[in-house]
Amino acid sequence: MESDYGVPRELSDLQKNRSLYMPELPPCLQGTTVRVEFGDATAAADPSGAHAIARSFPLTYGQPLAHFFREKSKVANAQTINVHPAVRVGLVFCGRQSPGGHNVVWGLHEALKIHNPKSVLLGFLGGSEGLFAQKTLEITDDVIATYKNQGGYDLLGRTKDQIRTTEQVNYAMVACKALNLDGLVIVGGVTSNTDAAQLAETFAEAKCSTKVVGVPVTLNGDLKNQFVEANVGFDTICKVNSQLISNVCTDALSAEKYYYFIRLMGRKASHVAVECTLQSHPNMVILAEEVAASKLTIFDITKQICDAVQARAEQDKNHGVILLPEGLIESIPEVYALLQEIHSLLRQGVSADKISTQLSPWASALFEFMPPFIRKQLLLHPESDDSAQLSQIETEKLLAELVEAEINKRLKEGTYKGKKFNAICHFFGYQARGSLPSKFDCDYAYVLGHICYHILAAGLNGYMATVTNLKSPSNKWRCGAAPITAMMTVKHYGRGSGSGATTLGKPVVHPATVDLRGKVYDLLRQNATRFLMDDIYRNPGPLQFDGPGADSKAVSLCVEDLDYMGRIKELNEYLDKVRTMVKPGCSQDVLKAALSAMSSVTDILSVMTSQRPE
């Protein structure tokens, strides 16, 4: 199989057309000269974890933000990078394939060659395993030609392995030194970018000259924070899944006798489920975050769905579509506790067929209650991040069975008077992730590839390429870089009952969950009743590359107000104005007004920063 990496693809007419599409760079990256401005030193979003992060990353924590500008921009402190020696850069795909990943390679390759034709980009074959084994493919114009704007990761292949153990980190360092790499670009999600931060720190400590850069590419959409507005692949995944969901909605409305339970990819967070709901308007979505926040049991969820089915039946509607995120099963408190027991026993070497006999009484009772197919799936070995194999646990079938049993019970009792309940289950886990990327993902990934080069040209290590103001046209995008350590948080875990003591976890880039106080969730709740009862199904259609739908972006991206980097710049401009207005010689009234305002602001900010985010 290795010999197939990078071979020219056989392209359909549409693929050929897409391979000719040229993403447009924002003005700040156009031309051969780009300027970089370094902002203030960054800090952890949660001050309570700052010390732990600084202790774990003494060389890469607290680095400044970087903003990129066009050559003629009027930014006083921006530096022009005039020297562009030939460099050698390696790139590795980590984690699951996400539409648009190939354009990161293309963008980085283009930027390297624009600034010095002698520069070399090496792709590691087979993901992190290829990195450890030093298996590479040199990216050339001919190699990348049939992969431009194409889906999948088949140019280089990938793994889901981590680069975390001492042995793995050492293998990576040996590879970078042996290949004389000036930079290593890691393409992936939260886990991969946490590993990138650790590599950057270790390389710096070992005086290894290779600089490490991360790129936010994950279909889950959970690598979101104050610096990262969206992930490459999320837009495509949601658009493709939304079309599939809307097709099912139309089928349900036509047959009027089926309830469709659809489980969607997304790992622990429900971003994909939320976005697909807003795009296609199914009748119901059960969010993992809601379940966790309300501590709903599996029986609570079953009742919630049954009540909805019964309410619809009273309006002679015996059909519907229900979305479930794959992380739902882990968010159910009693199931999560059961999984923790199972995983602990598996780590102790207990074989799967013996585990049921060693569970605690309550866990054993829940385990035996589950249908046989779920029991088998719960016994699967956990992922490398210790989470359950969520894609393999058929939560949709479990809930469909429980709902059917409860509806039949209500039917016998006479409280449910609708037609016989018929469920059809789907898992949309693999249908979308190899899709041709949307126009947005093509543009976004290509731009991030260019930014990776400029991060390396600026000599930065342990940074992630960022683009903000993404909901605007690409000519208004703001390009920059943020230290990955500034995106890290430290979880606080309880230790024993009643003691009040807590223990700190390791600093990592944690997946961002759906904000139950945010604008996107609020929009979802506002429409929940209409979605449930009125069958206002919406079909966004297939991916559009031209015409009215080509430039559409994720609803959640457009609803949220995320331009953090822009606001940082705006704040600095206000501070500069204050310095200009309040100088020695200004009036007493001006000075008093400034002091009063600043005192109020600092008091408010002191209170806010002393509170640990939930």
* Low-confidence runs: 494-501
Beta fraction: 5-15%
General shape: globular
**Which structural category do the helix and sheet elements fall into?**
alpha/beta
State the name of the first-level CATH class of the largest domain: Alpha Beta
CA distance, first residue to last residue: 47 Å
Task: Provide an overview of this structure.
The structure is a single chain. This protein has helices at 13-19, 50-56, 101-115, 127-133, 141-144, 166-178, 190-205, 234-255, 271-280, 288-294, 298-313, 328-331, 333-347, 352-355, 361-369, 372-378, 395-413, 439-457, 519-534, 555-559, 564-581, 588-610; strands spanning 34-41, 64-70, 79-80, 88-93, 120-124, 136-138, 183-188, 211-216, 259-264, 284-285, 320-325, 423-428, 463-468, 478-483, 492-494, 502-504. The strands form three sheets. It has a ten-stranded mixed sheet, sandwiched between helices. It contains 22 helices and 16 strands. Mean pLDDT is 90; it is low at 494-501. Helix content is 43%, strand content 13%.
Would you summarize the structure shown here?
The chain is α/β, with parallel strands linked by helices and 614 residues long.
Task: Give the helices and strands, then pairings.
Layout (H helix, E strand, L loop, with lengths): L12 H7 L14 E8 L8 H7 L7 E7 L8 E2 L7 E6 L7 H15 L4 E5 L2 H7 L2 E3 L2 H4 L21 H13 L4 E6 L1 H16 L5 E6 L17 H22 L3 E6 L6 H10 L3 E2 L2 H7 L3 H16 L6 E6 L2 H4 L1 H15 L4 H4 L5 H9 L2 H7 L16 H19 L9 E6 L10 H19 L5 E6 L9 E6 L8 E3 L7 E3 L14 H16 L20 H5 L4 H18 L6 H23 L4
Parallel strand pairs: 4-5, 4-7, 7-8, 8-13, 9-11, 9-12, 10-11
Antiparallel strand pairs: 1-2, 1-3, 2-14, 5-6, 13-14, 15-16
Helix pairs in contact: 3-18, 4-6, 8-9, 11-17, 13-15
